[in-house]
Amino acid sequence: MNFYPNAKLAIVLTVTAASLTPAGALADAAKAGLEIAKKNDLANQGFGSEASVMEMKLINAHGDVTTRRMKSEVLEGSGEGDRSIVIFQWPADVKGTKMLTHSKKSADDQQWLFLPAIKRVKRISSRNKSGSFMGSEFSYEDLGSQEVEKFTYELLGEMKFEGRDVWHMKRIPTDKRSGYSKQIVWVDKGYNAPVKLEYYDRKGELLKTASFKEFKQYGKFWRVGQINMVNAQTRKQSVITWSERTVGSEVDSENFDSDNLAD
């Protein structure tokens, strides 16, 4: 589960466009965005691994709440994207469910879901990545990679957001099978991470909004402490809150082997 977009999200330099044509300004901003994305990616490398405990609340349109507890491990990739696994610990009806993600820089991510009730490992097709993850407002695509190569970028402006300096930008998935036509993101200049992210469906209509809160620093790395995803079309929401996290902790590489999911 890739809940660390600060490690992969591009930041676009401000481009002075007074002497440029609109087309030239856009091209220049895109070029600068790619360059900064690569620098940002490089700056966020080196965390090695990570382990955490999370709580996910599913809230329906009537305000009814279902709570689930999960643990997660992330192993930093070398050459390709990171690998992550999420294991549900509670309640009993989802206990033992696992999702494994192998992120790719430009190819489709590889994702598997182990369902203990039927003792079966299910491969998540790239065609189904816009589907809901375990009934939440997070899709499999949201939990996949946020690699630089997966988007194109455009700076929309700079502003204050909840008292902090942010870049306001648009990013468009390069994968034509993405569930999103575009994403509008507010990137905190200090955290190098999004503090707000709007997802637009294939029709160009606002689908849902994620708010990223309670950031905490681990060495040089910032990590989000809570993500609130609100569906604008159904009024449902899902809230993930981290109760424990260790960056640089030792994890077993065998946990990220799809052949071991059913163990």
What would you note in describing this structure?
The chain has 263 residues and is mostly beta strands. It has a domain at 5-70 and 130-247: Lipoprotein localisation LolA/LolB/LppX (outer membrane lipoprotein receptor (LolB), chain A), CATH 2.50.20. It has one helix and 15 strands, in the order H-E-E-E-E-E-E-E-E-E-E-E-E-E-E-E. It has one helix at residues 22-43; strands spanning 49-59, 65-75, 83-90, 98-102, 110-115, 120-124, 151-161, 164-173, 182-188, 193-200, 206-213, 216-218, 221-223, 226-231, 237-247. The strands form two sheets. It has a 13-stranded antiparallel β-sheet with strand order 6-5-4-3-2-1-15-14-11-10-9-8-7. The chain has a two-stranded antiparallel sheet with strand order 12-13. Strand 3 (83-90) and strand 4 form a beta hairpin. The two termini are 19 Å apart.
* Span between termini: 19 Å
Low-confidence stretches: 4-21
The CATH H-level homologous superfamily of one domain = Lipoprotein localisation LolA/LolB/LppX
Write the H/E string, N to C: HEEEEEEEEEEEEEEE
Count every helix, treating DSSP H or I runs of 4 or more residues as helices.
1
Q: Structural class, judged by helices and strands?
A: mainly beta
Q: What is the class of one domain in the CATH system? A: Mainly Beta
Radius of gyration: 18 Å
CATH topology group of one domain: outer membrane lipoprotein receptor (LolB), chain A
| Number of β-strand runs | 15
